[in-house]
Automatic annotation (TrEMBL):
The chain crosses the membrane at residues 382-404. It comes from Gulo gulo. It is found in: Membrane. Keywords: Glycoprotein, Membrane, Signal, Transmembrane, Transmembrane helix. It holds the Pfam family V-set. One of its GO terms (cellular component) is membrane. Residues 1-18 form the signal peptide. This is Ig-like domain-containing protein.
């Protein structure tokens, strides 16, 4: 009887799997590939991760290959595949500044690019190993270097649209994020990217509105792109208050801890996972929130002190020692003893992690070449020795030349 049940279950599972494959193939059957290759315009902010689905392909193609070109018709084309149709890359393993060849993944015919950089802007093609293209994207990754923050609570308004003849430059804002904290006053924001409207755009690029594309799109001529370069992305911030959802109390765990603990005392039970980190006095530190992205609502607290973006956002004050960048990272410049404590991270309105920071004096840690300050000190010392040596040699060469010019006999009449 067990063997019969197993056989039936395997048959049902195989039928469901076959039905799933057929259903996925039918999706591509219902979406015919265009006879003339067009480019879908898509804009993202720096350090965001995005997905480009291959929306159409012939039925006989079982795996796809993605190609990348900086400009249309460029001789240099990157092949984004392992020639098996997939690349196993996890976003948590990607480091900032890594090359694009180690920041992408192909899953179910879709291309995933992690921590996109402005250098990743360009054209992405979905095709085969032979170089046949089915679908294409025009990706514009806008830099957050000069990003401008606007605080609604202070009465500030976003930048006004710019009109330069037939050129219309404006900001398109995304949806509001959820409130970054619950139970206390929090903040929410929306990201705005640069877009323009002009009648002189290339017809090969698809757009949701007539003659409207992102400012860095390949459809924009070089002259118009230079005019829109000064219109940077924007960040609109406002306050919010939302209640916290009730969590189930782990009564069994609390009872056990109370039993094994001393009478009249209860051990400290952290509500979120907490990691310990030891930092040298005077060094810089960058803290990231686990699983957070630039488009997520992320907040930072130190014990009971709340770091609001109206005071701690990067660019609000140039002399800030502690600030939050546009990628939701917490920066501490020149660590001090007063920085000791527990730093909590909120993601999408829920407190998810904590970092207990300890600060030690300089004398307790040995210098190491893995330390950026040590490497900088060694480089400066070597450069100083080289400069002194060059000056010393130059002085002696000049003296030798002067000596030879005086001692050399003069045969002129």
């Amino acid at each position: 009887m067990n063997l019969a049940h197993t056989t039936v279950l395997l048959w049902v599972w195989g039928s469901l799997q076959a039905f799933e494959i057929v259903e996925k193939e039918n999706i591509f059957q219902r979406t015919p590939c265009p006879a003339f290759l067009m480019f879908d315009n898509a804009a993202y902010l720096e350090d965001m991760s995005f997905e480009l689905p291959c929306r159409c392909k012939p039925e006989e193609v079982s795996t796809v290959v993605w190609y990348y070109q900086k400009h249309l018709g460029s001789d240099h084309t990157r092949v984004l595949t392992d020639f098996d149709g997939r690349v196993l890359t996890e976003e948590s393993q990607v480091r900032v500044g890594s090359d694009m060849l180690v920041r992408f993944s192909i899953r179910m015919f879709s291309l995933l690019v992690f921590r996109a950089q402005p250098e990743d802007s360009g054209l992405y093609f979905c095709g085969t190993r032979k170089g046949d293209y089915f679908y294409a994207y025009d990706v514009d990754v806008q830099s957050g270097e000069g990003m401008v923050a606007t605080f609604k609570d202070q009465g500030q308004e976003p930048f006004a649209d710019e009109h330069r003849g037939n050129l219309h430059i404006f900001t398109t804002f995304w949806e509001w994020t959820p409130c970054d904290r619950c139970g206390v006053r929090g903040e929410q924001w929306r990201i705005g990217l640069c877009y323009l409207q002009s009648p002189g755009l290339s017809p090969r690029y698809r757009r949701t509105l007539p003659d409207v594309v992102s400012c860095g799109s390949q459809a924009v001529p070089q002259k118009l792109r230079a005019q829109a370069r000064e219109h940077t992305p924007e960040l609109l911030v406002q306050s919010c208050v939302v209640p916290c959802e009730k969590e189930e109390v782990r009564e069994g765990l609390v009872a056990i801890l109370s039993y094994v603990s001393k009478v009249g005392s209860r051990p400290w039970l952290p509500q979120v996972p907490i990691q310990f980190h030891q930092q040298r006095l005077g060094q810089g530190l960058i803290i990231s929130c686990p699983g957070a992205r630039p488009e997520h609502a992320v907040a930072w607290d130190k014990d009971r002190q709340y770091f609001y973006r109206t005071q701690y956002l990067r660019g609000v004050n140039r002399s800030m020692r502690v600030f939050i960048d546009h990628g939701n990272h917490l920066h501490i410049r020149f660590t001090q003893l007063s920085d000791r404590g527990i730093y909590y991270c909120w993601r999408q309105g829920v407190r998810v992690a904590g970092l207990r920071l300890g600060v030690t004096a300089r004398g307790q840690n040995r210098a190491s070449f893995s330390d950026p300050e040590t490497r900088s000190a060694v480089q400066l010392t070597l450069i100083g020795y080289l400069v002194i040596t060059a000056v010393f040699v130059s002085i002696h060469l000049c003296r030798c030349c002067c000596y030879l010019s005086r001692c050399w006999p003069n045969y002129s009449p």
